[in-house]
Amino acid sequence: MKKHNFSAGPCILPQSVLQQSAEAVLNFNNSNLSLIEISHRSKDFVAVMENARNLALEHLGLQNKGYQALFLQGGASLQFLMAAYNLLEKKAAYLNTGTWSDKAIKEAKLLGEVVEVATSKSENFNFIPKNYTIPKDADYFHCTSNNTIFGTQMRTFPETEIPMVCDMSSDIFSRQLDFSKFSLIYAGAQKNMGPAGTTLVVIKEDILGKVSRAIPSMLSYKVHIDKESMFNTPAVFSVYVSMLTLEWLKEKGGITAIEKVNNQKAELLYSEIDRNPLFEGFVAEKEDRSKMNATFNLKNDKLKATFDEHLKQAGINGLNGHRSVGGYRASMYNALPLESVQILVDVMQAIEKGA
């Protein structure tokens, strides 16, 4: 039976990418050696790293604009600390829209003052705050573009004169933005780009070198830039699969093309959530709904066993909501086909007819 993978992360990857990466594990570049047993300093893997970094900048439209792309380790969780270590001298401004931004704030507070410009925590993060003021004397402003747990997404970003830092772990490469508005973007690969194990960091070089503290080598963006993302042994397999996924995206027509498909998927599912009397969305304002992670509940818990059985029979995987929220969560990342969303909608309609 075909599986329809709505997992929130590690998430679905393109079938062609899975096939290529599986072959490379056995025989990389016809070398009769595995990708995961060759030296990361070898000519073949250095070419992979360079290509991956270049493709990331190309997709974001940031080539030759003073930005560097890095593939690091530690996930977005390490970036919560690393961003502050490199940029926070006295005070930073944070928008708190969910669990991950909450954790980013906790890390930044270890290094300086944090001003929380707005939060939706009191309402269990079911909306994106708006009309907040960013202090002009802050070293940077930090936000999270998409919140996987609660299913909210920032549609617009504020205008600010200070550097803007954004955690785009779960919606990077899914929609077209003016990425030059951001001085630092980071994203764990396992949501929309590759397997777990590497993290993309895109940074504008001119924001570095402005803090007075000594920065440990492994936490220094400048060190990683100078070493071309090879200061220590990189996550070879994760970087390679991320490169393949970025190549796949390019073949599909890039972010502009994939955004159209993502819009179709989101429209199809949210229309059913709104129409079907058995379901209700989690997000308070429709304009804040995430196109990557649709969160919803059954209005009648007595139907849960029946619905879950129908999902299983349809081959639908990974639809359970995060343990802190419950309900259901359909993660519709770039590699998820429209067909899978249609199958989910068909199940929702079947439950309605049988209720």
From TrEMBL:
Keywords: Amino-acid biosynthesis, Aminotransferase, Cytoplasm, Pyridoxal phosphate, Pyridoxine biosynthesis, Serine biosynthesis, Transferase
Residue numbers of N6-(pyridoxal phosphate)lysine PTMs: K191
Catalytic activity as recorded in UniProt: 4-(phosphooxy)-L-threonine + 2-oxoglutarate = (R)-3-hydroxy-2-oxo-4-phosphooxybutanoate + L-glutamate; O-phospho-L-serine + 2-oxoglutarate = 3-phosphooxypyruvate + L-glutamate
Source species, domain of life: Bacteria
InterPro entries associated with the record: Aminotrans_V_dom (IPR000192), Pser_aminoTfrase (IPR022278), PyrdxlP-dep_Trfase (IPR015424), PyrdxlP-dep_Trfase_major (IPR015421), PyrdxlP-dep_Trfase_small (IPR015422)
Cofactor note: Binds 1 pyridoxal phosphate per subunit.
Cell cycle keyword on record: no
Quaternary state and interactors: Homodimer.
Entry protein name: Phosphoserine aminotransferase
